[in-house]
Write a structure and sequence with these properties.
single chain; 140 residues; alpha+beta; Immunoglobulin-like; eight-stranded mixed beta sheet; two-stranded antiparallel ribbon; 19% helix; elongated
């Protein structure tokens, strides 16, 4: 009859171990928040005449009420870019689905001064996204 208390103790240890493993798994999977579903986003930053903006730097997509994911990209010298999503210090390729406000940082090539300017909103859809972002710019 002494085996009964030992069986209860084993169950308690197993339950505690299962809880600990679940907690570790939650921490490793984005601090308990769902990993964002992203879709590939690439494109080009152009001026209102359709010419590549060669002084574009960081590109930011923002969604209203989104607190946990940041969507960023860096423009290449020819204006092309690829976006990625940051969530709890982890980087995921692409951007989350939905409408985003867009901001582009323009860099003055002479002074290095940065100017963050708004661009038209964009919508990321499931699947591949190839976007053209139009900004008002004076080239320097």
């Amino acid at each position: 009859m002494e085996k009964r208390p030992e069986l209860g103790r084993r169950r308690a240890i197993l339950a505690a171990a299962a809880l600990m493993l679940a907690t570790i798994a939650a921490c490793l999977s984005n601090n308990g928040r769902p990993i964002p579903k992203t879709y590939p986003v690439r494109g080009k930053v152009v001026d209102k005449n359709g010419a590549a903006v060669t002084n574009a730097g960081r590109i930011e997509f923002q969604m209203p009420n989104e607190l946990y994911h940041t969507v960023l990209g860096m423009a290449e010298p020819d204006g092309t870019f690829t976006m990625y999503t940051l969530s709890n210090d982890k980087k995921y390729p692409g951007a989350t689905e939905g409408q985003h406000q867009v901001f582009v940082t323009l860099v003055d090539k002479r002074t290095g001064e940065e100017n963050r300017v708004p661009a038209a909103d964009c919508t990321v859809q499931p699947g591949e996204n190839d976007l053209t972002i139009v900004v008002e710019t004076t080239r320097r």
